[in-house]
Here is the input.
Amino acid sequence: MDDNVYFCCEYARSSIGSCKACPKAISKNAVKIGFTPDFDHCGTIWFHFSCFFKKCFFRKQLKDDTETSSVFVGFQDLKDTDQQRIRKAHEKLVVALTTGKPEVKKGKRTADDDESEWKPHTKKPKTATHSEKELTVGKHTYQIQDFLYINISRWRVIVLVGIREYYRTAAGGKLRPGKKGISLTVDQYRTLINERLSISKAIEQIKEDKEGKDAIKKKKTKQTKKDKQVAAKTDFDISENRRVIVKSEFVSGSQQVVVDIREYSTAEQSGEIPLPTDKGVTLTEEQWNKLLSLHLTVIRDLADNFGYSEDFADELSS
Ligand SMILES: [Zn+2]
Here is the structure.
């Protein structure tokens, strides 16, 4: 993965967030330290003050960046005492990394003294074993990747196209649809597919932006906002409260472009700002392309078995 990250620090605004390394909650108003691989697209990964200096994999990058006040974004907003604390920890870390001596003093060990380092996961997702591939998943179900499937079903009088993760029941090894995913009406599914060219354009643009930024990072010059080209659209409504957003996200150890298909809360539920709900699915570019390649199969099934032959006649005959 790209190991050039940015560091930041701030006071925790609530005690909801937890530390990536230990992983206990970070109390409200405590100094937390984190890193972000990319300021534009990605959330910060946070640590307790001491967990960061002991365990965060990327702390090694601080060896060459010794000016504490410019390394940590948000440093100037901290109280003097907290600035001093970070300066000291940073200094100690640089000495330790340069001399190769252990960074942590060995003293009495406690149960909390887990010194394993926090590293981003770089393992690839397990590929399905032979027996998993053989499993039957029922009619009208098409595999996107691993446990991710498209499934057409009828709910009362509504026909739904689900994009959903399946799980295996313990006993028989049968695959069943799980909670993670979203069921689209045929209209919503069709709107989604109709946006495919714009969605592809958005994917390409985000990938180009990322490459451009990496090149600029290497040259150590700053990019101004003016350099950016006219932005392609990256979000698409497929119904009043369902939306597709193309974005760059930190997924299993690397920055990836994803296509997020999700339901948002309505104004009555959350006031002015629609918030993402857990009804949704985040597809990698590969999964998105696989979904597109299954489109003909899906509409043939909709036509043959769910009464949509007229709706898709044009697409099926071309
Ligand atoms: Zn921690």
